[in-house]
Amino acid sequence: MSGGCALCDTPGGEVLWADERVRVVWPAEADHPGLCRVVLQAHVAEMTELARSERDALMTAVYALEEALRELLAPDKMNLASFGNRIAHLHWHVIPRFTDDPHFPAAIWDVRVRPNPRPVPSDFAPRLSAALTRRLSPGVA
Ligand SMILES: [Zn+2]
């Protein structure tokens, strides 16, 4: 489906890993540069509309992404969130949090309390992509 859905019409960021059901994208957001999203490839609004195997595929990617981000960035905390109020197309925010990030300890959508987010390494995207491939498609070189 399309018709004005941002996640049907665009990838939503640089695609770091994808298969037929799920993609992992990196939008390179200014305040939270390590934030990535796991996006269902199909236009579906709710987790309970999915078959069990589809839910499992989506959450397997969420957990693999959490693990890969912890490995690469050593955050103080990981945040997982799924809302879909503005874009009713299933996606999970997977957010590495640091005690000195612009919103900590509040949610990243709350009031910004400090500047200067810490940057991600310059090779972040290829390293995260490789870490996801190792976890999610181990047969691929
Ligand atoms: Zn959509």
What's this model, at a glance?
28% of the residues lie in helices and 19% in strands. It is α+β, with helices and mostly antiparallel strands and 141 residues long. Strand 1 (14-18) and strand 2 (22-26) form a beta hairpin.
Overview of the molecule:
This protein is of the alpha+beta class and 141 residues long. It has one domain (6-136): HIT-like (HIT family, subunit A). The protein has three helices and five strands. The chain has helices at residues 6-9, 52-73, 124-136, and strands spanning 14-18, 22-26, 36-40, 77-81, 91-97. Helix 2 (52-73) crosses helix 3. The protein is globular, with a radius of gyration of 15 Å. 26% of the residues are buried. Bound molecules: zinc ion (ZN).
* Overall mean pLDDT: 95
What sequence of helices (H) and strands (E) makes up the elements? HEEEHEEH
Q: Give the quaternary arrangement of the chains.
A: single chain
Radius of gyration, rounded?
15 Å
The portion of residues assigned to helices is 25-40%
Largest sheet: 5 strands, antiparallel
Look at the structure and name the CATH superfamily.
HIT-like
The CATH architecture comes to: 2-Layer Sandwich
CATH class designation: Alpha Beta
Number of strands: 5
Low-confidence sequence ranges: none
Broad shape: globular
Lateral arrangement of strands in the main beta sheet = 1-2-3-5-4
The CATH topology is given as: HIT family, subunit A
Amino- and carboxy-terminal Cα gap: 33 Å
* Individual helix count: 3
- Based on secondary structure, the structural category is alpha+beta
Number of domains: 1
Amount of beta strand:
15-25%
Bound molecules: zinc ion
